Structure prediction request, 131 residues.
Amino acid sequence: MTDKTLGLADNLAYWRSLRDQASMGELHVEENVAAACDKACSDYLAELDKMFEMTVGLSSPEAFGNMPSAQMLGAKFHRLAIGEQGSARFAIKQQIEIIKTMREFFQHYFASVEATDTETAATVEALTPPG
Prediction:
């Protein structure tokens, strides 16, 4: 990483890259670290899901009144709360995608460990003399 602060799109690309490296077996994580990070991601996703649902309540354009300037202000707050690009809802949705990608990264680790354990057990069983 560089000294610059990553934007949401850069952050998503970074985690997708890590996920892809993990799926190709090029990147490994300590088991306890992966488990703790996956749990933190799971907990954070639950909070983000709540925040995402709450964004609907952030906007009530009609609450600003009937004057044209009030309606324009209400429309602006509505756009900032639940509009497309740049709204709170949009940012939360992007953050959810990043956290899900992070979990995919950790899930690749768990699948890799399980596959290695299964392979090792099969090898040991095949080498064990019949009893």
The two ends are 55 Å apart (CA to CA). The chain has a mean pLDDT of 83. Helices lie at 8-23, 31-54, 68-82, 88-127. Residues 59 and 114 are 47 Å apart (CA to CA).
